[in-house]
Amino acid sequence: MPQQTSKKHLTPITTLKQIFGDSLVTSKAICHQHGNDESFHEPHAPDAVLFAKSKQDVVKAVDVCREYKTPIIAYGTGTSLEGHVAALQGGLCIDVSNMNQILAVHHEDLQCVVEPGVRRIQLNEYLRDTGLFFPIDPGADASLGGMVSTRASGTNAVRYGTMRDNILSLEVVLANGTIIKTAKRAKKSSAGYDLTSLMIGAEGTLGIITEITLKLYGIPETIASAVCTFPSVDDAVNTTITTIQSGIAIARIELLDEKSIEAVNSYSNLALQVAPTLFMEFHGSPESVKTQSEAVGEIAAGLGGSNFRWTTNTEERSKLWQARHDAAYACKALRKNCEFMATDVCVPISRLAECIVETQKDIQDSDLLAPILGHVGDGNFHLVLLVDPTDPSEVGRAQDLHERMIHRALSMDGTCTGEHGIGYGKIDYLEAELGQATSAMQLIKQALDPDNIMNPGKILKIS
Amino acid sequence: MPQQTSKKHLTPITTLKQIFGDSLVTSKAICHQHGNDESFHEPHAPDAVLFAKSKQDVVKAVDVCREYKTPIIAYGTGTSLEGHVAALQGGLCIDVSNMNQILAVHHEDLQCVVEPGVRRIQLNEYLRDTGLFFPIDPGADASLGGMVSTRASGTNAVRYGTMRDNILSLEVVLANGTIIKTAKRAKKSSAGYDLTSLMIGAEGTLGIITEITLKLYGIPETIASAVCTFPSVDDAVNTTITTIQSGIAIARIELLDEKSIEAVNSYSNLALQVAPTLFMEFHGSPESVKTQSEAVGEIAAGLGGSNFRWTTNTEERSKLWQARHDAAYACKALRKNCEFMATDVCVPISRLAECIVETQKDIQDSDLLAPILGHVGDGNFHLVLLVDPTDPSEVGRAQDLHERMIHRALSMDGTCTGEHGIGYGKIDYLEAELGQATSAMQLIKQALDPDNIMNPGKILKIS
Fold it and tell me: Minimal Cα–Cα distance from A40 to chain B, Å?
């Protein structure tokens, strides 16, 4: 076993180099890139990056790393938002982006099997001719492996659920080098512990995902989009609550606050009224889409909504949702040379308006610029803090605001992260949220990864 | 610590008696009843039954049992089907049926919080005036705690999902005596390992559930039911596949084979044509229910379906679904003095017709009587073997048939149990189904319950 010195990882890397040759890269630029995600958290480069080609590569790498107790961090596209890919203790990054084959489409079962490096847009382009699609859309063109690992969701979750609801089975390489398949392809099962769900959202701390069986859906016959402005966040949220309680299967319902609307108007060349606004989408037959749109229009009107417009025009719809997808960049463009701190919380929808309004007041009182965007149907919203990194006072106020927002969400029986995950950015908040349950998580982590080689320093602090 | 003798459990029971007084019962009749479920598996009585009144009672009992390494088996209503409540090694049964309070209804959040002894029908009666309901319906009037623990589903799962999809959070007493809360009430979260899902379907082997936060749904404005007969199982299954692929959100779609129809005709005084038959249900607005019913009628007609009738008449609908719920008893009534072996498997829907047809042929070749009933939208079906327990040859043929059916389902990428669970009845099949994954389950079990006191002998064989 190697000495605990700065040369700690030299021996395993040499061993890995002998096995993998050119697939193992140690160049500074590649290592730096792989230790960095899209978050504001400090990047940490791994000692080497393995561009894995197969599950056998993953097993071989895990076997070497276990022998040397070398950290292993899986990498898909690096679009995570809580420092998930940062190699906090160095070690080996396993880049799975070349494991990008769509292995099977089971049309009648509404399922497909993919490697973890397959990206969301790649999958839907591949599926288009089959009439099927995979609905989970976190915004970024993320890898499916990464989406599984962070329990991602996004704009469509209000109708189609999150990654938790859309994975049937996973193949995972455990720290002990065994390959497990967590479930068969049956749509449901009561056979044993739900290891599929355990691995979803585990952020690579319990194993490396090498195959994913996903649920698919028929591409809707008709898609309509709608926009509506409201006098207050409260009215927009109440419209959402009433819509969902009415059983309307709305596909997307997104809240943008005044600041976000300013940002998208400017960035995406729109002329929306600057007010709390809902962007919506409806999926179904032409008649059902019409019924849904009109029903929501009526609900909105009853709650002070104005300018409700719905359309099945593809161009208008694409423009609207492109603007929503670009909203984070639009927010960033509100202020030059700023650092961009994206964070999310999620609360029971009955507390959402209160949580957003209190947060908006806190932003104002803190003299900060921070548009709010929300997957309001799920009670989930994002804060996009735009901070001058050269102003320590402003950075401090931003950090304090962030912390207060999380504790506000927790006090409302909410979670410190609805869809971004814990990574190392929110590791301090997990225990505040779940208390003793984190001890049970520790026991599971220790049982499956006794040497703490799987993405150490993420989700849990291992003492 | 006590000696490993037949008096092994005497000391802990005495200790428990001192703590719980009359709430601890050791009478033979009560113990026998609590070691028995509705399955054909041999019952095993516990040494005592604690009628727990609170989570504090559960913690105290777990603390004593841990000290003495005494097995603990949770009990709700005893309606499980794989020997889940059998006290294979004696020990303490914790009956939670008195923990039956509905603690909160969060109307705007479509959630409620209940104790584990609350029963399905009790909950829906309580909710009726709120306009909300909990859709999971396994047939039996089971306790919610039991439904969580077996990952139950039933007729509504094709639209509303299973227990896996409808639990937001659990409070659980672990073997080490700590009470954990697995999640907050936010609709979604990416915060740490999904302990909620891990506990769902764990059959009381990882802890005792003391509180459940459930998802609720609006009671549909209109409910329609429909019946349709088919020339073959294949046609009925293809109608189901096409319906689901068309995006029709059918609420229930149940297959009854010829033998089941004979049974329900006789038992429930119906006059259905003896042929493979679909019972269906649609939820929605009056228009949407009409659209859905007519669309499925057209699909069925194109696949040879005949006598398609749909109705919103409550009496007709109730009669139909009462017949479906009574189908197991109806099957039993086909043969006097028989033993009733109920079992279930689940396969990808593309393989369902093949799996059922092969099983029907096998039943015929084995000279057995065994109607088939299926939650066909999920690829899940039940075999109701009617066996003369005094005929060893017939019992043997039934066991062989059962085993072949399970291996047939596994060979089709299916599961040995879609909704009944493993218990001790299917413990030998779990490894056949999931291989190495069961070793990972063993590691988790050992980490959370190192002394194997939580429902030992269920799901996993602990060596």
Answer: 18
CB contact (8 A) between residue B438 and residue A192: yes
How is residue A132 written in tokens? 């099927």
Mutate to test the interface with A, among B111, B112, B188 (most CBs of A within 10 A): B188
Contact of B426 with chain A, judged by CB distance below 8 Å, is answered with yes
A213 touches chain B (CB under 8 A): no
Instruction: Give the 3-state secondary structure of residue A192.
Output: coil
CB-based contact (8 Å) between A353 and chain B? no
Over the stretch A317-371, which tens digit does the pLDDT of each residue have? 999 999 999 998 899 999 998 988 999 999 999 999 999 999 999 999 999 999 9
**Residue-level pLDDT at A194:** 98
Q: Which CATH class is domain B335-433?
A: alpha beta
From the candidates B187, B245, B376, which should be mutated to test the interface with A, based on the most A CB atoms within 10 A? B187
Q: Is A419's CB within 8 Å of B188's CB?
A: yes
Residues of chain A with CATH 3.30.70.2740: 335-422
Measured between its terminal Cα atoms, the distance across chain B in Å is 21
Report the share of chain A in percent with pLDDT over 70.
Answer: 98
Assign domain A335-422 to its CATH architecture: 2-Layer Sandwich (3.30)
Nearest-by-Cβ selection for A346 from B187, B198, B416:
B187
B163 neighbourhood in chain A, CB within 8 Å: none
Q: Give the ranges where A108-232 is alpha helix by DSSP (H).
A: 120-127, 144-149, 157-160, 195-199
Domain span(s) for CATH 3.30.70.2190 in chain B: 222-328
Q: Do A191 and B448 touch (CB under 8 A)?
A: no
Q: What is the CATH number of domain A10-97?
A: 3.30.43.10
Measured CA to CA, the distance from residue A187 to residue A193 in angstroms comes to 16
**Which chain A residues touch B183 with a CB distance below 8 Å?**
415, 434
Could you tell me if A202 and A147 are in contact, meaning their C-beta atoms sit under 8 angstroms apart? no
| pTM exceeding the 0.90 threshold for the entire prediction | yes
Give ∠ CA A71-A78-A169 in degrees, rounded to 5.
75
A348 to B185: CB separation less than 8 angstroms, yes or no: yes
pLDDT band for position B247 (cuts 50, 70, 90)? confident
CATH code 3.30.70.2740 region(s) in chain B: 335-433
Mean pLDDT of A437-453: 98
Contacts of B225 (CB under 8 A, 6+ apart): B279, B280, B281, B282, B310, B311, B316, B317, B320, B321
Question: Is the Cβ–Cβ distance between B170 and B212 less than 8 Å?
Answer: yes
Which of residues 153 through 182 in chain B touch A, CB cutoff 8 A?
Answer: 153, 157, 161-162, 164-165, 174, 178-182
Q: Which amino acid is at A222?
A: T
CATH 3.30.465.10 in chain A, residues? 102-218
SS (H, E, C) B256-300: ECHHHHHHHHHHCCCCCCCCCEEEEEEEECHHHHHHHHHHHHHHH
Whether residue A186 and residue B418 make contact (CB cut-off 8 A), yes or no, is yes
Answer whether residue A94 shows pLDDT above 50: yes
| Fold designation for B222-328 | Alpha-Beta Plaits (3.30.70)
CB–CB of A245 and B108 under 8 A?
yes
What integer best gives the mean pLDDT of chain A? 95
Contact between B434 and A106 using a beta-carbon 8 Å cutoff: no
Partners of B108 on chain A (C-beta within 8 Å) are 241, 245, 348-350
Where exactly does CATH 3.30.43.10 map onto chain A? 10-97
Question: DSSP alpha helices (H): ranges in B6-99?
Answer: 10-20, 28-34, 55-68
- The CATH number of B102-218 is 3.30.465.10
